[in-house]
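[Solved] Which block belongs to which protein?

Original post:
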Amino acid sequence: ILNGKILPQNAMDLTLKNGSLIHQKQVPSSHFNPRPNIDDISLLVIHYISLPPEQFGEHFIDDFFQGKLDPHRHPYFAEISALRVSAHCLINRAGEITQYVNFNDRAWHAGVSCFEGREKCNDFAIGIELEGSNEQPFTTQQYASLQRLTQEIMRAYPLITKERIVGHCDVSPGRKIDPGQYFNWATYLGQL
């Protein structure tokens, strides 16, 4: 239990060692490369994703971040299957965390982006995806896991402060809207 909320069992131990969450599900993505400077990790970007859109609980996000998404499984997949993207982590609707890319490496989540006049946010940002959409609220379990994960990230990467936690919409305005209208920033940031 964290702040009165029941966490999923695996969210209880978020031991971070050398950029890896030791006791969390690991689904390695090849969609990453070395950061220019790991001492410069100073931004946290919150995203949402659902595959197919508005559907939850399948393995398709894992497939997408691994470059294994079958374009024949859904019409939308044919549009995106060739993209090479990833995030550092995903928090599913039950609050379970999957890590795809070591935090010390550069995941490909923000794309064309800018924060405080600095472009290429992937160089210095950590990207966390929430399984969700712009059409419905996120779950209590997701907020609890996101808060706990954020606290661990902030401990390991002290240049990330509350003021340096943003949505994808903030670093790619006009191009992206996530984490969307239902993401409750006050709930999330208020517990950090």
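(Second protein starts here: sequence line, then its structure tokens.)
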Amino acid sequence: MIKAILFDVDDTLIKTFETKKEALKDIGRKFYGVELIDKDIRAHWGRPIRELLKSLYEDVDIEEAFERYVTERKNHPTTAYEDTLSTLRELVKDYLLGIITTKSKRYLKDDFDIAGIPEDLFFIIQTEEESKVHKPDPEVFTYVLDHLEKKGIKKSEVLYVGDTFSDYYAARDAGLQFYGIAERTIKKSEFEKKGARTIKDIAELLILLKK
């Protein structure tokens, strides 16, 4: 029986790639003479922001690039998927909800404010600052699982929902259950080849968890 549901954020709860890729392209074009395409950004997507910037722009002042991203991303606000808020409000009635993301606290708060997602829906939020490692390393769940264990919840009773292979590998190797949201970052067929169960959106959880 599932007692806790943990969520990735980018491209799981909010529409991140489609908006933030434009900010990254604009920075490259304006400041670094780099013409990025979607494929360039997708290859490094999901890394902590400074690692992402370093991968995309290479030999630049990363803190300068970071501040430029802070400014530019405001011109490309991220919105929630249509079913996100209503589904979370239903799920929180029966499950503990949590967040595990490579976002910084600063970005998560900004994005949640814009998307209209209240932070108090979640019993715990793990951002870049609380993470000693990152997905696909299964140790990324240690911080949250320690808190759940204190509440008497076992790993087998925890579900993680994400949109990438890194999400799946981390959850699988940590002993958690997993659903991959297909056709956003990874195709349904590709998830299934790896042995991952899929959903089309988080609203589908309301049906599946009742079975």
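Accepted answer:
You had them paired correctly. Confirming on the second one: The chain has a mean pLDDT of 95.
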